[in-house]
Specification:
This protein is α+β, with helices and mostly antiparallel strands. It has a domain of 44 residues. It has 3 helices and 3 strands. Strands 1-2-3 form a 3-stranded mixed sheet. A hairpin with a 5-residue loop joins strand 2 and strand 3. The C terminus is likely disordered.
């Protein structure tokens, strides 16, 4: 299999966004277009980078700030078990 055969099947359209786009916008594009990444271009149309599905998924996890109370999962029904 060659790249050209993949492009024939999937198409060769490239979705591009600007560097100031919100991550939520990227997530919406990736989801609605059923693609794995978008190209980031500056105002002159020059390639700045690429944002992948993985980047979108890992971003919130990397930036999360856990409080000590959030470190453990709780059973929401634990207090209703009687005793």
């Amino acid at each position: 299999m060659t790249v050209v055969s993949v492009l024939r099947e999937k198409g060769s359209a490239v979705i591009a966004i600007g560097p100031d786009a919100l991550v939520s916008k990227v997530a919406a594009i990736i989801s609605s277009k059923r693609i794995g990444a978008v190209v980031v271009e500056d105002v002159q149309g020059e390639l700045v980078g690429i944002v992948s599905e993985r980047d979108v998924a890992r971003g919130p996890a990397r930036n999360a700030r856990l409080r000590p109370d959030d470190a453990e999962c709780e059973d929401p029904d634990a207090g209703d078990r009687g005793g």
